[in-house]
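With this grant's support, the team has encoded backbone shapes as discrete tokens. A representative record is reproduced below.
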Amino acid sequence: MKYLPLLAALVVPLTAHADESKIAKAAKFDYLQIRLKTESRKELAAFAKNWREHPVHVRIEGHGYAKDEEFSIELGQRRADRVRDYLVRQGVDATYLTAIGHSRAEHGRYVDLVLEP
């Protein structure tokens, strides 16, 4: 229940794992793109607003999916960076955020937020 206020801030229901620390697919992207979709910006803005009342460290895990492994990791990192930058513009303290890129996750067009104690 520790993270419930942050989870409740999200406009569209997302997959929350049993430990309530991981919000799956918190931001979505078009194929091979790093531009945040409009619905993702709205969800992240709501998350940031609630974060300001309940600050917690967040690991941003960007996923990329392409035939080239190196490109996939770079794409995942750029997506994670894009979400981090957006959250900072929304008032989240950058020192609470860590952005990490991954490759070849299933469908790979999203970013997960992992809430850390």
